[in-house]
Write a structure and sequence with these properties.
Helices cover 46% and strands 0% of the residues.
């Protein structure tokens, strides 16, 4: 843009990418001693442009490094509904719990990772606010309670308690009561029923009678069971 007194311009760089499919192949190994020798073999695809092939090597002195690094992707995660809130809240809780179980002292939180405590507090507060009058959860604050979402949130709250986080006990007990009521619905599909039973086992109050009845019927229900629901059945037992 030109005028008698002033001018303005904009320059943009547009990358030129080759026509093709991006392929990523990964491999990993654990070194337990300085003298350990590990060899990793990766087959690189043929390419007409050799410059498009590259190898990215990442080393970490402990599990805490890559695990905490992955949380960076959740710091700016845009969330609004219950499911999105859980997608940010639950991984953060599980990382904290995993490091505790392994006896790994997490390195000092730097940069964006300093926001992790606020992420957890904000996630809990949002889940509390989205709890319905019947104690369950849906996708939003004012929709109908959904058994799967109720189980998902209860799983997250149970794991948060296991990690030593302060969870509102009134909210937790109301959620457990709602999940119990939902479990009694005869129209509930088998996958969601098994998920609820698994969550109850994680929360320390499993329904052994119902679990055993379903486990005994596992062969006749084979067509209805997904790999995930089979895992929940095993976890609940």
């Amino acid at each position: 843009a030109l005028s008698e007194g002033k001018s303005d311009a904009e320059e943009r760089q547009i990358p030129i990418l080759p026509h093709g499919l991006e392929i990523t192949e990964t491999a990993n190994a654990v070194l337990s001693a300085p003298e350990d020798d590990r060899r990793l073999s990766i087959t690189l695809p043929k390419s007409e442009v050799p410059e498009n092939l590259f190898v990215d090597l990442s080393l970490s002195p402990s599990l805490a490094g890559p695990v905490l690094k992955s949380l960076n992707y959740l710091i700016g995660y845009p969330y609004g509904c219950v499911e999105q809130t859980m997608s940010q809240f639950l991984p953060t809780v599980l990382v904290t719990h995993t490091l505790q179980d392994l006896g790994i002292e997490a390195p000092p939180l730097v940069g964006k990772l300093k926001q992790i405590p606020q992420m957890v507090d904000k996630g809990l507060s949002r889940l509390y606010n989205h709890q319905h009058g019947d104690g369950g959860w849906g996708w939003w604050e004012y929709d109908v309670s959904d058994p799967f979402m109720t189980a998902y949130v209860m799983y997250g709250l149970a794991r948060a308690k296991d990690a030593g986080l302060a969870v509102d006990e009134t909210v937790f007990q109301r959620g457990k009561s709602a999940a119990t009521d939902q479990l009694q619905n005869p129209a509930l599909d088998i996958s969601t029923r098994l998920y609820l039973l698994y969550v109850f086992s994680v929360a320390g109050s499993s329904d052994r009678t119902m679990i055993e009845k379903l486990y005994q019927r596992r062969q006749e229900m084979a067509d209805e069971l997904t790999p995930m629901s089979r895992a929940h059945m095993v976890g609940a037992t």
